[in-house]
Design goal:
6 helices; about 35% helix; disordered N terminus
C-alpha cells in the first residue's frame, strides 16, 4: 500500500550516488550543474526519483500555505495520472518525488507537468491579486513570470530495491538535513509520518 497524499497538508542541489568500499553512499550535486548537462531516458513501468526546483531557488514553499498548495497539486496529478507515490517531500525551494506510473503508456513527464502547471497557475493568480513583491523575484530578463527553474530538474530511473530504499530515505531525511525538523516524521510536507504509522498527520 502506498502513502496517501491529500489537500491537508524549507537546499537547491540534489542527491546522487557513488560506490565507496562496496557500499552506496550519498553525495550532494549542485542542481544547476545537473540541469545543464543531463539527458533524460524514462524507462516504461519503472520507478523514478525526481527533483525539481523553484525559479532561482526562491523559497516559495517556506510559507506553509504555499507548501499546502504544492501538496494539493501533487494529489491532483496523482488522481489524474494514477501513479504510485512511494515518497515525497516539499522543501522551501524544491520538491522530491519517488513515483511509479501504473497506467500503460503514461509517463512521469505528464504527471510532473500537471502538478507544476496547476501550482504555477494558482500561486501566480493569488500573488497577482495581492500585488506581492515576490513577483519581482520571479520575473526573468524578458519580463516573463517563472515559477519553476527551466530544464526540468533532476530525475533517475530506479532499478533495484536497494536504490529505492536509499532514495526514499534521502527524501524523508532531507528536511532534517536542512534543519527544518529533528525527526523525519515531524515534517508536515512529506510522506515520512505515513511510514511511521501516523496516518492522521501524514499528508
Amino acid at each position: 500500500m502506498w502513502p496517501p497524499i491529500t489537500d491537508s497538508a524549507q537546499g537547491g542541489g540534489v542527491c546522487g550516488t557513488r560506490r565507496v568500499a562496496g557500499r552506496c553512499s550519498m553525495r550532494y550535486v549542485p542542481a544547476m550543474k545537473l540541469r545543464r548537462t543531463m539527458r533524460r531516458f524514462e524507462h516504461a513501468n519503472h520507478l523514478r526519483f525526481v527533483t525539481f526546483s523553484t525559479y532561482h531557488t526562491v523559497p516559495l514553499m517556506k510559507n506553509p500555505l504555499v507548501a499546502d498548495l504544492m501538496v494539493s497539486c501533487i494529489a491532483l496529478a496523482r488522481e489524474r495520472h494514477r501513479f504510485h507515490l512511494i515518497a515525497y517531500a516539499v522543501m522551501p525551494e524544491h520538491v522530491h518525488l519517488l513515483l511509479w506510473p501504473r497506467i500503460p503508456g503514461s509517463s512521469c513527464r505528464q504527471a510532473l507537468a500537471t502538478m507544476k502547471m496547476s501550482f504555477a497557475a494558482r500561486a501566480l493568480a493569488r500573488w497577482k491579486e495581492l500585488k506581492a513583491p515576490l513577483l519581482k523575484r520571479l520575473t526573468d530578463p524578458q519580463g516573463r513570470l517563472c515559477v519553476w527553474q527551466r530544464g526540468g530538474g533532476y530525475d533517475r530511473n530506479i532499478m533495484s530495491d536497494e536504490e529505492r530504499l536509499e532514495k526514499a530515505t534521502y527524501i524523508h531525511t532531507n528536511p532534517c538535513s536542512a534543519g527544518l525538523c529533528i525527526r523525519p516524521e515531524e515534517y508536515r510536507w512529506s510522506s515520512a509520518a505515513w511510514y511511521k504509522g501516523n496516518k492522521a498527520e501524514a499528508a
